[in-house]
Amino acid sequence: MSKYILAIETSCDETACAIVKDNNQILSNIVSSQINVHELYGGVVPEVASRIHIENISLVIEEALKEAKITIDDIDAIAVTQGPGLIGSLHVGIQAAKTIAWLYNKPIIPLHHIVGHIYANKFVDELEFPLLALVVSGGHTELIYMEKEYSFEVIGTTQDDAIGEAYDKVARVLGLGYPGGPKIDNLAKTGKENYTLPIPKVENPYDFSFSGLKSAVIQLINRLERRNEEIIKEDVAYSFQESALSQVLKITDKALNDYKPKHLVLAGGVAANSRLRELMQDMILKYPNIKLTIPPLWCCTDNAAMMAVAGSVAYDHKLFGDLYFSAQPSKPIS
Ligand code: KG4
Ligand code: ZN
Fold it and tell me: Which residues touch 203 (CB under 8 Å, ≥6 apart)?
């Protein structure tokens, strides 16, 4: 018999609901983005985000059911992002999920947002274990080792800013607007190696750091402004990106060497970065026994289909919640 999972994702600034059949067949994937509102402020304003989630959540759920051409009676379980994320935003999705679960007597599955990003890869490939996931997003920069299905060990993390946060901040000081990642990605394509920026160093071999690099970019821009010199935005974007990504490459390379997984997957919004995708494809040539999967662009950034596929696997492991769990803004993955 087929299995239908309805998932709700509201951890940041996308109100999203998706329905997935039998682990990876997407019947609907509705994302209502708030980017046009937040870009007025240069970043996500948490209070505003939760208010817009409240306005949109019922419509997004209705739309997901309509597009999937099924009714709530056909759904086997409701999956929802419990954390990490913005507390007010998470709360809206969780309340909606609990209400449906209670009203229609369906099991509920609380999920970790990053687990969704990792399982998004199931839309394009079978996951093979042991697996190493490089998670690069607006809130996370982590290397996660999965010895088997649904088991997660964080082997490295950022000691300060997430990589996406650094992209957004650098874009902001260059006056490029929010979200900055795609803008820097594009601009860097025509940039040259004109400015020297530091490659951050961290003691723990699998940890990352981006705040020093971010400060170096800010100092560079201040210095150029003080001297009335032209700021060549393409070149700043190029140098920042090369420096940030060379750190990511080096650390991932070391982890592949040490952990020898069968599969490397990329996950999170920054996995949409064209230069990172290119560098990873080059690096994996050194490892003929390791499969590389990079999620398609549409499922790198936040969406509910990825939460539904993670929910399907959690359903198979009977990882159900009760109606009393609450949002966990800093939920640990394991
Ligand atoms: O996964 P995501 O949608 O939300 C979080 O869970 O954080 O990631 C959003 C982040 C933002 O920081 C955005 O600037 C970054 O992903 N991003 C990119 C690109 N597309 C999105 N960063 C670099 N290059 C891109 N092409
Ligand atoms: Zn995300």
Answer: none
Which of 270, 279, 294, 300 to probe ligand 1 with, by most ligand atoms within 8 A of CB?
A: 270
Domain CATH number, residue 278: 3.30.420.40
| pLDDT value, residue 324 | 96
Q: At what angle do helices 180-188 and 274-283 cross, to 10 degrees?
A: 70
280 close to 133: Cβ distance less than 8 angstroms: no
Q: What is the tens place of the pLDDT at every residue in 199-244?
A: 888 989 999 999 999 999 999 999 999 999 999 999 999 999 999 9
Q: Does 177 contact ligand 1 (Cβ within 6 A)?
A: no
Q: pTM for this structure?
A: 0.95
Average pLDDT over the chain, rounded to an integer: 96
91: in domain: yes
Q: What is the pLDDT of residue 286?
A: 97
The domain in which residue 64 lies consists of 4-119+299-316
Ligand in closest contact with the CA of 115: 2
* Same domain for 142 and 53: no
In the chain, the amino acid numbered 223 is: R
Q: Which atom of ligand 1 is nearest to the CA of 179?
A: 14
Residue 317 has pLDDT above 90, yes or no: yes
Q: Tell whether ligand 1 has an atom less than 6 A from the beta carbon of residue 4.
A: no
